[in-house]
Amino acid sequence: MDKKKVKKNVGTMNRREFVKKTAITAGSVYAASTLPSFIGSAQAADRDHILIGRPNPSTGPLAAFGEGTPWADEIAVNEINKAGGIMIKKLGKKLPIKIKTVDTQSNPTKAAEVASQLILKDKVDLMLFYHTPDTVNPISSICERFKVPAISLDSPLEPWLEGGPYKWAFHAFWSVEKDIVPVYTGIWDQIETNKKVGILMANDPDGVAWSEVFKKVGAEKGYELFDKG
Which of 101, 99, 81, 89 is nearest to 45 (CA)? Predict the structure, then answer.
């Protein structure tokens, strides 16, 4: 391998190029790894494409999370379709991907509503959704109810697990208890204090989950936490 060439490429890749390549890779991985196994009995067998439902908080308090979603999806889908789509063995052919994005307005009730419409009206083959329990939890429940494969990200594991057990919904993200709290308690343990800690967590499903886990694990380590959020 030419180390000089590698070094040059790394040095000249700007932030936008890095994000673009990451989005393409992530999109390709989720589609290529999950769709072939789901598609056998799905709606795509009766049409010429794979339809992915994309409930997204495009407006409302969570809009900052959802702002880049359509852009990243477009890049990933274009790359996948440029390669001919996804090979579905049971159909014996490749199918291109299409995504239908619908605004959840950052509202859990609206998220459940648009998910139901995507399933019952649009007949999506797969649901893909991100960004906090306000989005992830209600849509996971809807997908379980209608037996539609669902993949979610960007929401703490603990509040998602409370809605289980799941057969159709799959979630990938870190755990507050196992991955986040130890980082903070590890810092706190390095200095001598009265072990009283003030925290500010949002009064929403995401913040409540964080607060409860922080208090639980903190108490186990001898810390008393006060949440004034």
Answer: 89
